[in-house]
Amino acid sequence: MTQLRGQSEPAWSPNPLRIGTTIKMRTEGKPDVKLMVSAIVSKRDALSREIFVLLTAHSSMSKYSIGDQCYLVRSQGKRNEPLGKLVDPQKVLGGRAKELGFHLLEIDNAPLFPDQTETTHRVSTTKNFHDDIWSGGSFKVRRINDIARVLADRSSKGNRRPVYRNAKGRVCGDVYDVQISEQDGVYKFSYCGLVSRGRGRPLAETHSLGAPVISQSGALSAIIVGTAETETVVYPIEEILKSAPIEFLTFGDDWPKIRVID
């Protein structure tokens, strides 16, 4: 059965790994890094359900290595929590994984997730991305968990809370053989979509690198990988699935609504 989950903005989430949010991570003896949670995935038909977090770096990862045990850096007064270890992206995403610039973290005995398999739901993904653009309709997408600004919440005696914008955009074109320069190298994408909010406005700013976008129906559609003049460049989920037998998951509380498959 197909359902829509997370139809209203969560007031509070016990789970820090909502897709589309930025986390701070560290490992022993190396500088803290900021990363975007782009997706949560597992291998399809695996005997043991391993859970992986697909991450896009907002800081240089040059000092991090495969096998590093990583910790979630939490707010002041809270203990950092173990998340898992970095693994080779090719293990899950296939041979071209390194060209895409994604990092992969295997959730392993993390106290925040005592039973990962029971708390995840499969996410519906967009099919026929190219055809949806040129089929004569309007292929609209929406950014997930975009923290636009922070406002004072009077009821909490001056504490501040995040407010989400979740800007809407329209896929207005596509492009082949994309190369994007980032701080740790040049990444290559065989095919990308171009998203605009209209009036020369991209869907998202630089802080949204790696953020997922969903379709009007709530299906996971693409991941933001860069900008091109007045458009946002997105890499379709469908392209990842061509070489990777994986399932996309959610721990819940992603906002706006995401269609899940039970």
Describe this structure in words.
With 262 residues, this protein is mostly beta strands. Helix content is 9%, strand content 46%. It has 5 helices and 19 strands. The chain has helices at residues 90-93, 97-100, 116-119, 129-134, 237-241, and strands spanning 2-5, 22-26, 33-43, 52-57, 69-72, 81-87, 102-107, 121-123, 140-143, 147-152, 160-164, 168-182, 185-198, 201-202, 212-215, 220-228, 231-236, 246-250, 258-261. The chain has a 6-stranded antiparallel β-barrel. Strands 9-12-13-17-16-15 form a 6-stranded antiparallel barrel. A hairpin with a 7-residue loop joins strand 10 (147-152) and strand 11 (160-164). The longest helix is centred in the middle third of the chain and has 6 residues, at 129-134. It is globular, with a radius of gyration of 18 Å. The termini are close together.
Spatial strand sequence of the major β-sheet:
2-3-4-7-6-5
Structural class category: mainly beta
Mean pLDDT: 84
Main sheet characteristics: 6 strands, antiparallel, barrel
**Helical segment count:** 5
Radius of gyration over alpha carbons?
Answer: 18 Å
Poorly predicted runs are 149-158
Cα shape: globular
- Termini separation: 5 Å
Order of helices and strands: EEEEEEHHEHEHEEEEEEEEEHEE
The residue fraction in helices comes out at under 10%
Q: Give the total of beta strands.
A: 19
The percent range for strand residues is: over 45%
List the helices and strands and how they pair.
Layout: E1 2-5, E2 22-26, E3 33-43, E4 52-57, E5 69-72, E6 81-87, H1 90-93, H2 97-100, E7 102-107, H3 116-119, E8 121-123, H4 129-134, E9 140-143, E10 147-152, E11 160-164, E12 168-182, E13 185-198, E14 201-202, E15 212-215, E16 220-228, E17 231-236, H5 237-241, E18 246-250, E19 258-261
Antiparallel strand pairs: 1-19, 2-3, 2-5, 3-4, 3-18, 4-7, 5-6, 6-7, 8-18, 8-19, 9-12, 9-15, 10-11, 12-13, 13-14, 13-17, 15-16, 16-17
